[in-house]
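Memo subject: From amino acid sequence to discrete backbone structure tokens
Action wanted: Derive the backbone structure tokens from the amino acid sequence.
How to read it: Take the token row as a discrete description of the fold.
Attached in line: The record itself begins immediately under this heading.
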Amino acid sequence: MLFAARALAGACAGNIAAAQAYIADITKPEDRAKGMGLIGAAFGLGFIIGPAFGGLLAGNNPAAADIETPAWVAAGLSFVALCGVVVMLRESLPADQRRGRGRSRNRFAAILDVLRRPVLSRLLLIFFLVILAFAGMESTFALWAIGQFGWGPRQIGYVFSYVGLISATLQGGMIGRLTGLFGEERLLLCGLALIGAGLLVLPFAHGLALLTLAVTALALGMGLMQPSLSSLISRRAGREEQGEVMGVSQSVGSLSRVLGPVAAGFFFGEFGRDAAFFWGAVLVAVALFVAVKLISGPGAARLAAEADASR
């Protein structure tokens, strides 16, 4: 039942790519990071309310937690979201721009096409590595916190709510202004550096102060990295292939979410509860190296040229 439920959830996970393509359709290229930030802010708001509410319903005791009620509540909220899409959401493109969209390529052809583009393929590699690290952290954090602090679901839920609060504040109200001041490329580098620093500090957190510092760095880093990287990827896709390219991006992210918990679980079980975080920090360091090479020197000209060619 567990695997069947997760398989069904995974089969329905394409809605994120559709939402990103929708935002790309209705925003100008210079406003793309701000638009992607709105999706991140929505996720952040969900992370403020969801973990705290779920932890409240599940209780403090990790041995006797009520794990059924939060699942039923989540299912109900998903149904409300479905009703909202059916009733409130209109098609993002006018009818004349939708003609010919039925002749779309299959996913594998789209992936091969994207991988042949030097800049776009490297941006997707960065996305793959960061989500691989972050998914590993998310899947082991609760187990780590139980061993490190003796916490139950409620305290862990509060931590993720704090992450959501920072993410929603940053992506909902500040990312557009920051993009205008510094550009998506610099925000991407800053975000990657913060994520790596947060993962490195986390194993040494034996008290609330250092834990707060590490979690804050992770939240700020993801808040800067995700909309900036999504915008850079989107701006390298033509208007008629936004959904296709963002779908490939989400496929890469889904692969990371498959492999990340497996790898982190292996490191957690074989080398101790801190090893998964160090492994994640190494992955983010590689992503940062790729980003620096892409954005600086000859890579910067190629980045701009590919963006111009996609318009």
